[in-house]
Amino acid sequence: MQLSGLTGFYHYLGDGQRGVYDWPPSEGSLLPEEAAPLASTLARHTATPSVCWFAVWDGFGATREDLQNAPTFALPHRRYFLLRGSVGEVTETTNPLSTWHQSANLWWPDDHAWCVATEIDINTTYIACAEACSDDILGMRELEAFEINPATGIAWASDLVNPEPQYGLPPG
What we know:
Number of helices: 4
Order of helices and strands: HHEHEEEEEH
Helix content: 10-25%
Strand order of the largest sheet: 2-3-1-4-5-6
Shape: globular
Number of strands: 6
């Protein structure tokens, strides 16, 4: 389900929606307080925790100099900078000139045991992994995690449980 389906509105209010949530999830970035425990769990499910690949969309402004000089690769509709480090380095920001944290959008270990994708335009992070890894992630108290059917879409209107929200601002 999508946050817009739960709240009934496409527009997220910066200070939340009373009775529903206090602050909307970050779009396009996984915050360090979420990334650190996730990275710790994922590190146990790879034989190569010291070699992890990080991809950062090249459309973000104020990217670090090492990003601007990094190799790039393209996926449909997006080009990414490619960096390498250890799994735990996912908590680093790619935007040091701002108080806004920007994480890597894609990251995966060298052995391809799992892959994490934080969609640039959506407030959701997806993880493809083996069942044992999934069980550990679903059991984490630090994260809100749910198993989804891989065929489920990620578009605004892909929520099959809740009605498509209306446009505009919520009342009050």
